[in-house]
Design brief:
Family: Belongs to the class-II aminoacyl-tRNA synthetase family.
Structural class: alpha+beta
Shape: elongated
Bound molecules: phenylalanine
Oligomer: single chain
Subcellular location: Mitochondrion matrix
Catalytic activity: tRNA(Phe) + L-phenylalanine + ATP = L-phenylalanyl-tRNA(Phe) + AMP + diphosphate + H(+)
Pfam families: FDX-ACB, tRNA-synt_2d
Number of helices: 11
Organism: Diploscapter pachys
Strand content: 25-35%
Length: 409
């Protein structure tokens, strides 16, 4: 049922009969995966942002060149999402079967490109926009109604593209517009269009190398209403070519509309899920949304530079048991924890999916020390019964008693 007023990210918008947000998309809006510190999408985002900050600096080198915009409101006007990007009035992406509408004039952003017009108008020359975007879509292994994009835009005044000395030999705009050609727009000079494409592709190939080390990539010609020429970059993953980003030279019309007719620029938008799937070998896009600790624990406490190979979790349910015990006074806590982990894994074998030290304390009066571990059991073959797990758990307790003289509580 449609609310009278829709509130999101500080905006309050009166809905109308165009409203087509489902309950499930409202739930997705609340989750905000990029705010979860160990989410693989967040780790990848940080890896990209760190690379860009280290590689591209303002003149003098003191501060990063690119401004990161990650708090843009996720509800935008249809002007921002479509018209400012020269999307034709009858384009399929505008259909209510493709876009989530709050009312006739407002929708959930379908791409981070929706923020370009305003951010350029506000004076930014180099920025990254990151966030969750929403498209009504079939759900399968690689499609989900919400996914995450990282956008990059870089604008150049004449002297920034060819140097102060070069401006006279190389004006960036044509004196009189030519016809549109496969490799250039009407108003952008040939040399400028070529220079932009070289810079854009170098930026993205370098970014790919920084993320993946080596990986097979290829450029494919593409079409976007707001760039020309346009390209897609594909990456080889498990024997298939996977499209991971779109990019191109920004349409000069867009610059004029945003109030910077004398600059030229490029933009790209990449899908974080697609890249994270390749980088961490995550087989299914739906996994990013799981709350199963078998997934989350594989990324917990990791840093953006860590290499992580995701191990598929079983479809069978988890069974969680805790074990707490007192320790003899002679045993040092720190030495012991990894020995306890090993012991639990040795006895539990394949059935132990996760082990975590949850609590430790020393009783002030008795001086006795205590630890509590949480063990998550799960089988790849079948759903475990409590009885089966209990037998294994008892065997683990027994081993802890023998090895560490632990006193089970
Ligand atoms: N917004 C495009 C998409 O979502 C990607 C893109 C961004 C393409 C910037 C070109 C330039 O598919």
């Amino acid at each position: 049922s449609r609310p009278e007023i829709f509130k999101l990210d500080g905006k309050e918008i009166r809905t109308d009969s165009c409203w087509n947000l489902s309950n499930s998309v409202l739930t997705l809006l609340e989750r905000q995966l990029l705010n979860e510190p160990s989410n693989p999408l967040n780790l990848l985002k940080q890896r990209i942002v760190n690379h860009v900050h280290q590689t591209y600096r303002k003149p003098g080198g003191r501060s990063p060149l690119f401004t990161v915009c990650e708090r843009e409101p996720r509800v935008v006007t249809t002007f921002e999402n479509f018209d400012s990007l020269l999307t034709p009035a009858d384009h399929i992406s505008r259909r209510p079967s493709d876009t989530y509408y709050v009312n006739q004039d407002y929708c959930l952003r379908a791409h981070t490109t929706a923020h370009e017009h305003r951010l350029i108008r506000e004076g930014l020359d180099a920025f990254l926009t990151v966030g969750d975007v929403y498209r009504r879509d079939e759900i399968d292994k690689t499609h989900y109604p919400c996914f995450h994009q990282l956008e990059g835009v870089r604008l150049y005044a004449a002297d920034q593209l060819f140097g102060t000395a070069g401006i006279n030999q190389h004006p960036i705009l044509e004196k009189t517009p030519t016809e549109r050609k496969p490799h250039k727009q009407e108003k952008i000079a040939e040399d400028a269009s070529n220079a932009l494409q070289i810079q854009l592709k170098a930026f993205l190939e370098d970014l790919c190398d920084a993320i993946f080390g080596v990986c097979e990539k290829r450029w494919v010609d593409a079409y976007f209403p707001f760039t020309h020429p346009s390209f897609e970059l594909e990456i080889e993953y498990q024997g298939k070519w996977l499209e991971v980003l779109g990019c191109g030279v920004l349409e000069q019309k867009l610059m004029e509309m945003a109030g910077v007719p004398d600059k030229v620029g490029w933009a790209f938008g990449l899908g974080l899920e697609r890249l994270a799937m390749v980088l961490y070998t995550i087989p299914d896009i739906r996994l990013f949304w799981t709350k199963d600790s078998g997934f989350l624990s594989q990324f917990e406490g990791k840093s953006p530079t860590d290499s992580i190979v995701y191990k598929p979790i079983s479809a069978h349910p988890q069974v969680t048991f805790d074990v707490s015990f007192f320790l003899p006074e002679s045993v040092q806590f720190n030495d012991m924890t990894s020995d306890v982990y090993d012991t639990i894994r040795n006895v539990g074998g394949e059935l132990v999916e996760q082990v975590k030290l949850m609590d430790e304390f020393t009783n002030k009066k008795s001086g006795k020390r205590s630890q509590m571990y949480r063990i998550v059991y799960r089988s790849n073959e079948k759903s475990l019964t409590k009885q089966e797990v209990n037998a294994v758990h008892k065997a683990i307790e027994q081993e802890l008693v023998e090895k560490f003289s632990a006193v089970i509580r």
